[in-house]
């Protein structure tokens, strides 16, 4: 047949009686060979037998019809799948009760009856599962066909069969097939859902189920790609098998290797895009609805525990359903983040910002009670969402971070809600501590050698105030860790202010030192209600403990203490040494003619140790000038010690 075709090419032999019968015989023989080769090819791709496929392809190559045959085979798979898609989405079949179709009137839409909606959806998803099986089977067969084409060579010319097709401009039949299938899916789904609201509702409402089917299909396609070489190796030691062993790995597998300008998985999932967008929109509505319901316009109270539980259950449900796919989990987590932010915005509108929200004189006001309730509500939301996220298995890190960022806004809002109250407490603590300067610490030591009272009046007031605010205001908050995180800062500030003001007391007698030492011990008891443990206050606690022994040490010992410059700032010690000097050696605030309160504010505004030391140096220089002006012969004994300590302090800043 092949030789005759070659010899008779371009020659009309019709009408020559001698060879007319031979022509008829050859035509019939060719047809028989083609039919047998087609059957062998069909059987080979169905059973994944590379030997049979290779033999059939060799026949078509010899007959000169390889390219047309491959095109027809691929077109046949595409047409078959298009028919499968249409059958799967046939609304008449999906909505028929049992086996009989009820005919509607002219122009009447076919729709499921209310009682049959569940049966309709069950039938639809059964069809979709079957469709995925059909797509997977067709892909496997085309992939197998391409694998053989890529490996098989003509034994005479040694030309690879895929090169014969390349000449015709079609090198990747799997890519061609997959592009056609994914485009058909997109177009047929669009047509079907445009013509049936029930199909549209099913695809949009149960999109995660749809996506799971696609993900399962994709995994099966990739699994087949991984197994195909092993299947070839198990097919027997034929001539084709020997060829396959010598050939390099297939580089045309679009299910394992992305092309530069083509993502085969994305091409598949593009057909779902309209349904994903609709699903995410409805998901956001489901998340927002319960929040809008429990925050009615003009409402003054945060949601109840039951109402908040309902919101959390909705969040958990949306995340659980989206867990079928990492990208869907991320998209839904963004909706959850918006939900958390909406809850925060609605809660913030309930907060009282009037003056009575920060008062610390009387019992809780109505505004303060509402603020407590709002903070407790925000805290319960925060903790509940954290619990939901932690219960998710294989939750994408990006999704977790998205929700964590939204939860931080809730935590920040809680902080903003209590900040006015914290500020009032801090201001009151400072106002009480500064009254120590109204008490007399200049007295000498009593005959008993002990202070007359356990502690000073200001310390009693401070202890009573802190105990009262913790009992009257902060004990109503459910978020104990959150409260302590904020009140511990007040405790640290209180110790800092106490040390600052204690170092400024002038004059300070021996009896005053004893009473001040007692105040140091009582200070630990005063700030205890503000923290979990006083020792948790870290640097502030060490400062309090380290300063107390210095009250009774000589100036030389104080200057050489290892705590100075390490735990206790140089500026604090230098301030304290001023109290041991004659009145002529004025403290920095006395030289500037400031009140204690103004000096304390200056120190707050100038946290830099260098700025503080420069101010102290100015006071010492002014003292030197005053001594020289009056013609003095010597300086106070503490002065050289202070100068040496100042030099040491300045050198550490270099």
TrEMBL record:
Listed GO biological process terms: intra-Golgi vesicle-mediated transport
One Pfam family matching this protein: COG5_C
Domain Conserved oligomeric Golgi complex subunit 5 helical: 13-218
GO cellular component: Golgi transport complex
Domain of life, per lineage: Eukaryota
PANTHER family recorded: CONSERVED OLIGOMERIC GOLGI COMPLEX COMPONENT 5, CONSERVED OLIGOMERIC GOLGI COMPLEX SUBUNIT 5
Protein name from the UniProt record: Component of oligomeric golgi complex 5
Source organism of this protein record: Chelonoidis abingdonii
Lineage: Eukaryota, Metazoa, Chordata, Craniata, Vertebrata
Protein encoded by which gene: COG5
């Amino acid at each position: 047949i092949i030789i005759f075709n070659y010899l008779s090419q371009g020659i009309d032999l019709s009408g020559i009686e001698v060879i007319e019968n031979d022509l008829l015989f050859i035509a019939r023989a060719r047809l028989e060979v083609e039919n047998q080769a087609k059957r062998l090819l069909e059987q080979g791709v169905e059973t994944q037998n590379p030997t049979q496929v290779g033999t059939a392809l060799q026949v078509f190559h010899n007959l000169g019809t390889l390219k047309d045959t491959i095109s027809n085979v691929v077109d046949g798979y595409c047409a078959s799948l298009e028919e499968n898609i249409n059958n799967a989405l046939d609304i008449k079949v999906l909505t028929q009760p049992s086996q009989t179709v009820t005919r509607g009137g002219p122009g009447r839409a076919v729709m499921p009856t209310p009682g049959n909606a569940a049966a309709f959806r069950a039938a639809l998803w059964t069809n979709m599962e079957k469709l995925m099986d059909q797509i997977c089977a067709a892909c496997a067969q085309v992939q197998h066909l391409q694998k053989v084409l890529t490996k098989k060579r003509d034994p005479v010319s040694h030309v690879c069969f895929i090169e014969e097709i390349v000449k015709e401009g079609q090198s990747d039949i799997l890519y061609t097939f997959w592009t056609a299938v994914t485009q058909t899916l997109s177009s047929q789904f669009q047509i079907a859902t445009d013509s049936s609201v029930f199909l549209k509702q099913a695809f949009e409402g149960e999109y995660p189920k749809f996506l799971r089917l696609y993900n399962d299909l994709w995994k099966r396609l990739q699994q087949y790609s991984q197994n195909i070489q092993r299947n070839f190796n198990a097919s027997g030691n034929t001539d084709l098998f020997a060829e396959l062993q010598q050939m390099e790995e297939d580089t045309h597998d679009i299910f394992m290797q992305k092309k530069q300008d083509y993502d085969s998985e994305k091409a598949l999932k593009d057909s779902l895009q309209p349904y994903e967008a609709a699903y995410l929109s409805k998901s956001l509505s489901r998340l927002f609805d319960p929040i809008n319901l429990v925050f009615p316009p003009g409402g003054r109270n945060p949601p109840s525990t039951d109402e908040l539980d309902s919101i959390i259950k909705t969040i958990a449900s949306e995340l659980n359903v989206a867990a079928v796919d990492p990208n869907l989990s991320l998209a839904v987590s963004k909706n959850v983040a918006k939900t958390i932010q909406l809850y925060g915005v609605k809660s913030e509108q309930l907060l009282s910002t009037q003056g009575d929200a920060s008062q610390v004189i009387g019992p809780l006001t109505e505004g303060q009670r509402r603020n407590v309730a709002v903070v407790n509500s925000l805290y319960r939301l925060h903790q509940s969402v954290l619990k939901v996220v932690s219960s998710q298995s294989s939750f994408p890190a990006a999704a977790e971070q998205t929700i964590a960022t939204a939860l931080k806004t809730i935590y920040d809002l809680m902080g903003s809600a209590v900040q006015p109250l914290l500020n009032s407490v801090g201001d009151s603590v400072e106002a009480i501590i500064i009254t120590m300067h109204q008490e007399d610490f200049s007295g000498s030591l009593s005959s008993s050698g002990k202070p007359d009272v356990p502690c000073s009046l200001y310390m009693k007031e401070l202890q009573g105030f802190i105990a009262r605010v913790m009992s009257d205001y902060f004990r109503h908050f459910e978020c104990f860790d959150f409260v302590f995180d904020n009140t511990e800062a007040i405790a640290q500030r209180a110790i800092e202010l106490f040390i600052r003001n204690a170092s400024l007391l002038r004059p300070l007698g021996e009896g005053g030192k004893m009473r001040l030492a007692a105040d140091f011990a009582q200070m630990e008891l005063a700030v205890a209600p503000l923290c979990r443990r006083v020792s948790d206050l870290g640097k502030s606690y060490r400062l309090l403990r380290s300063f107390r022994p210095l009250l009774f040490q000589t100036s030389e010992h104080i200057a050489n203490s290892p705590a100075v410059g390490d735990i206790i700032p140089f500026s604090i010690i230098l301030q304290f040494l001023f109290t041991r000097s004659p009145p002529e050696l004025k403290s920095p605030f006395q030289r500037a003619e400031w009140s204690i309160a103004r000096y304390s504010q200056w120190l707050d505004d100038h946290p830099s140790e260098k700025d503080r030391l420069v101010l102290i140096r100015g006071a010492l220089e002014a003292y030197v000038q005053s001594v020289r002006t009056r013609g003095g012969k010597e300086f106070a004994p503490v002065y050289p010690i202070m100068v040496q300590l100042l030099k040491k302090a300045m050198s550490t800043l270099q």
